[in-house]
Amino acid sequence: MKSPRQALGLLLAALLASPFALAEDAQRLAQIQQRWAEIQYRLPAGEKTAAFEQLAGQARAFTQAEPQSAPAWIWQGIVLSSWAGAQGGLGALGKVKEARTDLEQALKLDPNALQGSAYTSLAALYDRVPGWPIAFGDASEADRLLQQALARNPNGIDTLYFWGDHLYRQKRYAEAKAALLKAQQAAPRPGRELADQGRRGEIAALLKEVDQQLN
Predict the structure, then answer these.
(1) Which one, of 6, 71, 80, 1, lies nearest residue 39 by Cα?
(2) From CA 4, how far away is CA 11, in angstroms rounded?
(3) CB 138 within 8 A of CB 131
(4) 22-153: what fold?
(5) Interhelix angle for 157-169 vs 139-152, to 10°?
């Protein structure tokens, strides 16, 4: 049995360690986010698959080290889905299904983590993968998930971009344009400058396609 002094020492050690552990997790998350943006927006298409595969290993190590961290699961799902997108073809479906499982795990742990990013990323999967019997694509489910994302982060650049993309896919062009114009006004995210720059480029490109449909 531990003495009161030993118990107090263990408690103090735990309290002192917590801020360092949180800082380490935040740094690990920032590194994955930054590397994802570099791969997504700077690397040539032919180099993305191998780069995302390497990053997936880092993301997996993060979830193994912190299995109760919803942000870790969110970013493992994002990296896997991006890897699948870079790879393409039916061979990527296994990664897409694994990404869905990761994002669902994040929602179980904390649906509000990273301002509801798991809802946004999961919705993008349902919008973009083939439907049954090949995969699980489902526009209605994407719509439901995006409504959850918008409830948590109505002004976020990613949320609004994927909402605009969803509306475009549903041929709701005027609504899509409104969402994308709002996305252009989203506040910058500290430490996510490259991701913001790349996303704004995607917003501008999609707006051109929307305008072509409206004119």
Answers:
(1) 80
(2) 10
(3) yes
(4) 1.25.40
(5) 150
Q: Where are the alpha helices (DSSP H) in 88-185?
A: 93-109, 117-128, 139-152, 157-169, 173-184
Q: What is the pLDDT of residues 53-93, one digit of tens each?
A: 999 999 999 999 999 999 999 999 999 999 999 999 888 99
**Model pLDDT for residues 93-135, shown as the tens digit of each residue:** 999 999 999 999 999 999 999 999 999 999 999 999 989 988 8
Using CB atoms within 10 A of its CB, is residue 16 exposed (0-12), middle (13-18) or buried (19+)? exposed
Distance of CA 186 to the CA centre of its chain: 17
Distance in angstroms (rounded) separating the CA atoms of residues 115 and 93: 27
CB contact at 8 A, 186 and 156: yes
pLDDT band for 12, please (50, 70, 90 cuts).
very low
pLDDT of residue 15: 47
CA 169 from centre of chain: 20
Side chain identity at residue 44, one-letter code:
P
